[in-house]
């Protein structure tokens, strides 16, 4: 279980999402440091991104080819959201900011 903020936001309540974390830093490297940036931009970071891409691709293939797995995942997702779930944007129904024109 990891913690942190992402741009997924309330989308994950309306539709299933997926994410993968891979090791690309030396153990003990603090986030948002030059050491993290350096490791991520070197071959270890590229290799970690490739591992993540391959993992997500293989998971997608498995889901496409296995209807029972899709059905089970959908049932678990729906159960977690609750029976009376209705999507409501966290931003509300307001108009977009700044120079919005009808």
Name some characteristics of this structure.
about 100 residues, mainly alpha
What's the layout of helices and strands?
Layout: H1 11-14, H2 34-41, H3 43-65, H4 67-81
Describe, in plain words, how this protein is organized in 3D.
The protein has 102 residues and is mostly helical. The chain has a domain of 27 residues. Helices cover 49% and strands 0% of the residues. The chain is flat, with a radius of gyration of 19 Å.
Radius of gyration: 19 Å
Class computed from helices, strands and strand pairing = mainly alpha
Distance between the termini: 44 Å
Helix content: 40-55%
Separate helix tally:
4
Give the percentage of residues in beta strands: under 5%
Spell the H/E element sequence: HHHH
The major β-sheet equals: none
Which residue ranges are poorly predicted, with pLDDT under 50 across at least 5 consecutive positions? none
- What do the pLDDT scores average to? 85
Shape: flat
Number of strands: 0
Brief sketch in words of this structure:
With 102 residues, the protein is an all-alpha fold. It has 4 helices and no strands.
